[in-house]
From TrEMBL:
Keyword Lyase recorded: no
Residues spanning the signal sequence: 1-25
Gene Ontology terms, MF aspect: copper ion binding; oxidoreductase activity
Any single Pfam family the record assigns to this protein: Cu-oxidase_2
Location of the Plastocyanin-like domain: 83-192, 216-331
Name of the protein in its database record: Copper oxidase
PROSITE patterns xrefs: MULTICOPPER_OXIDASE2, TAT
Ribonucleoprotein listed as a keyword: no
Highest taxon of source: Bacteria
Keywords, sorted A to Z: Metal-binding, Oxidoreductase, Signal
Length: 443
């Protein structure tokens, strides 16, 4: 849980007169710290205008305090250890104990003051991606402000001019700092609570890492060959499910600070993209989709009516992005005769194991792995291996969930007679092979 020590003074401060201009060191709020990797319950505002808060997959929202009519937050940029999934921990950089940093929530029209303390070994800044703010608050090191040196604290002050979904990340040694996991999301709720209200509101940011098996640090110079495809620096089966009550209007806000696009797909429903980091999309411009591409450096938000109960896969549709680190070097042996292969390989390596000649389904195979990495596909469902990794989780739509209950409801209890089933089919015969092996074809 986060520390509330810094917030004991909230009530007293709320009554104080507005502070304007330069803040004094003594008035810097203490920075809350999170040490858990599971989704924290929504943080309902205790002061300021009301709103329906978001939940952050495997994350949390940053508590704030009111100081006069300013909403004050404190981010601390620092080294963190992030568990990607059970069995793999990575040394990253992040904020307030986690990578990504906490979600910052506010309301359209709020006056925001964000303290940023740098506990990294090098300088940093924070850029507020997509937000309409004064140029001097834009966080581009060298261009709009001096870099924040290690041990120093800077203050960003601006008004939340428009509602929507935004991101934050450094604009200071960006390649390294973003490859190390420094990022987070900003959600600005509409002041008018009747504007497109939803019952559940999820948020996460996508990032990618190359962490070679047996190592603990991302390769920050990697440009294309990543092996960990993460949502909020977690991979399946480490990504929280999205528990949803049947009939809920659900919003999912997705940021992309990786170096490639991700087509995000939800099963069992159609949805509409309702918002980007540029703002709300007018209803007349929305159309139904089941997959939406989230470009690099962008936010896509979709709204969906959860009217179909069940366990619904929710994932990136690039199939390599639902895989983890181990096993990508394996050759394609589909269709190769296992006997021929074993004979050929046996001459060179007597103990070798021929695998993959009927596909690569690995669910029932246990192989020794190096320390601190994850098999290509893992996870088990009620019917067997799920054979996914990376950017994959499950939207769990249930009739019997309480309104604000975000706990994992467990596997879906399928009504009798509604699951695909095997039939007696004696003519099905053995696995088919191509009529003519490719190497015997006349070209
Ligand atoms: Cu992807």
């Amino acid at each position: 849980m986060y520390s509330r020590r810094g917030f004991l003074g909230t009530a007293a401060l709320a009554g104080a007169s507005a502070i304007s201009g330069r803040v004094q060191a003594a008035s810097i709020p203490e920075a809350p710290h999170m040490d858990r990797v599971v989704m924290q319950p929504p943080l309902h505002p205790i002061s300021g205008p009301d709103y329906r808060p978001v939940v952050t997959l495997n994350g949390w929202s940053l508590p704030f305090r009111m100081n006069g009519d300013w909403k004050e937050f404190h981010l601390v940029a620092e080294p963190v250890v992030r568990e990607f999934a059970e069995g793999m921990k990575v040394n990253l950089w992040g904020y307030n104990g986690q990578s990504p940093g906490p979600t910052i929530e506010a309301v359209e029209g709020d006056k925001i003051r964000i303290f940023v303390t740098n506990k990294l070994p090098e300088y940093t800044t924070v850029h507020w991606h997509g937000m309409i703010i004064p140029s001097g608050m834009d966080g581009v090191g060298g261009l709009t402000q001096p870099h924040i040196q290690p041990g120093k604290t800077f203050v960003y002050e601006f008004e939340m001019k428009k509602s929507g979904t935004f991101m934050y990340h450094p604009h200071s040694d960006e390649m390294v700092q973003m490859a190390m996991g420094m990022m987070g999301m900003v959600v600005v709720h509409p002041r008018d609570q009747s504007f497109r209200p939803v019952d559940r509101d999820f948020v996460f940011v996508m990032s990618t890492y190359r962490v070679d098996p047996g190592t603990y640090l991302p390769q920050v110079n990697e440009m294309t060959d990543f092996n960990m495809w993460t949502w909020n620096s977690r991979v399946f089966p480490g990504i929280d499910p999205l528990p949803v009550r049947l009939g809920d209007r659900v919003r999912v806000r997705i940021g992309n600070l990786s170096m490639t696009n991700h087509p995000i797909h939800l099963h069992g429903h159609s949805f509409a993209v309702t918002c980007t980091d540029g703002g709300w999309i007018p209803e007349s411009a929305q159309y139904p989709e089941t997959t939406t591409d989230v470009p690099v450096g962008a936010v896509r938000v979709f709204d969906v009516l959860a009217d179909n109960p069940g366990d619904w896969a929710f994932h990136c549709h690039k199939s390599h992005h639902t895989m983890n680190a181990m096993g990508h070097e394996v050759r394609n042996l589909i269709g190769v005769s296992r006997k021929d292969l074993a004979r050929a390989v046996g001459k060179l390596a007597p103990d070798a194991m021929a695998m993959g000649s009927s596909g690569m389904a690995m669910g029932n195979m246990e192989m020794p792995a190096p320390d601190n990495t994850l098999p290509m596909m893992t996870g088990t469902g009620q019917f067997g291996p799920i054979e996914m990794g990376g950017m994959f989780t499950v939207m769990k739509i249930r009739e019997d969930l309480a309104r604000d209950d975000y706990r994992d409801p467990g596997p879906y209890k399928f009504p009798q007679g509604t699951v695909a089933y095997e039939v007696e089919a004696p003519d099905a015969g053995p696995v088919r092979q191509p009529a003519t092996p490719a190497h015997k074809m006349k070209m």
